[in-house]
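Here is the promised in-class demo. Please do not try to memorize the tokens; focus on the logic of going from shape to residues.
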């Protein structure tokens, strides 16, 4: 079968590999749609970050070349021995976190903080940029009939957004700011709407992405023409309750912190390739806090329920649909050349 594999930085290849054989406790699916994640792009341009390149991952035993893709949906075509949760024909999405189950974080139920945590589609085992995938049963979540396969491919990134909002201090009626409205930033806006935020300020350089944020209900702030921090401080009469940093650009972290009021919080959602210098006085003198999240835990069912109610809409967030044969040139390279794309979905054929 065809599968996109990471061999090295800037070295992705569409390889022909063996179709996976379903093992005990696994579910084999025919992949329908797989989204290109910002993490995938980071691996392509600056990796390895999560991908094991020199030594095998401790939970999968795999190392590069690795099949990529962790935002995907599909239909169950075969189930392994002892699988009880799903059956052939079920429409499903995948929660792609590997965890050991034995470290302190895992014992506390915080499996996304596992000492050896990895992602299916980054740490090995297979991936969504392929025709078929065989996945541990515990990663599988059924999709209701009113949630499409396209929506199913958005569950994983939507879970990141919902987890970020749930872990933050945001309350119903709060004013918030989202710095960066790429795919995750827009999904954070959707999660904040569901959480009852009263005003959502979206800071974004790209006009298309900023307009998309406004379409979703946010108040656009154009840092090309105004001082974003000053404008937010003015419009909110002293700053937002919570700011979400979703760019991974070091100077923006400082802007996010400075946009909050006293006792405000900044939640780091993005992955940073470089260190971000911040001045501790900006935090200490206003008794602000800075928090962060990685991935998600225990939120896939809630995301799917919200999708069934109309949140996280694929028709407003997906800007391009391509085939697996086009994934490198039209997908990864396309995202690097065309900065205005929101979410590109890849059809496995």
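The designed amino acids, position by position:
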């Amino acid at each position: 079968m065809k599968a996109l594999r990471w061999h090295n930085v800037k070295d992705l290849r569409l390889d022909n590999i063996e179709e996976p054989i379903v093992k005990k406790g696994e579910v084999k699916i025919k992949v329908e749609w797989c989204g290109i994640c910002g993490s995938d792009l980071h691996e392509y341009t600056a990796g390895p970050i999560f991908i094991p390149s020199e030594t095998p991952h401790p939970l999968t035993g795999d190392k590069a070349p690795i099949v990529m893709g962790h935002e995907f949906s599909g239909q169950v075509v075969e189930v392994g021995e002892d699988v009880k949760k799903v059956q052939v024909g079920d429409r499903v999405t995948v929660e792609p976190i590997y965890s050991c189950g034995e470290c302190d974080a895992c014992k506390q139920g915080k499996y996304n903080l596992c000492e050896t945590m990895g992602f299916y589609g980054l740490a090995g085992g297979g991936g969504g940029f392929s025709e078929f995938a065989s996945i541990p049963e515990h990663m599988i979540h059924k999709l209701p009939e009113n949630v499409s396969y396209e929506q199913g491919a958005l569950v994983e990134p939507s879970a990141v957004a919902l987890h970020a909002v749930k872990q933050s201090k945001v309350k119903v009626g709060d004013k918030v700011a989202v710095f960066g409205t790429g795919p995750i930033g827009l999904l954070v806006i959707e999660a904040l709407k569901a959480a009852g935020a009263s005003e959502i300020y979206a800071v974004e350089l790209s006009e298309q992405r900023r307009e998309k944020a406004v379409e979703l209900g946010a108040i656009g702030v154009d840092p090309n023409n105004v001082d974003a921090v000053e404008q937010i401080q003015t419009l909110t009469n002293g700053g937002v309750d919570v700011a979400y940093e979703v760019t991974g650009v070091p100077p923006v972290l400082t802007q996010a912190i400075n946009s909050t009021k006293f006792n405000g919080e900044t939640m780091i959602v993005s992955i940073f390739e470089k260190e971000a210098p911040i001045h501790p006085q900006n935090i200490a003198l206003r008794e602000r806090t800075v928090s962060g999240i990685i991935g998600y835990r225990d939120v896939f069912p809630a995301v799917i329920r919200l999708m069934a109610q109309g949140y996280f809409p694929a028709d407003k967030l997906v800007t391009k649909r391509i085939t697996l044969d086009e994934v490198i040139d039209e997908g990864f390279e396309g995202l690097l050349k065309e900065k205005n794309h929101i979410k590109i979905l890849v059809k496995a054929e």
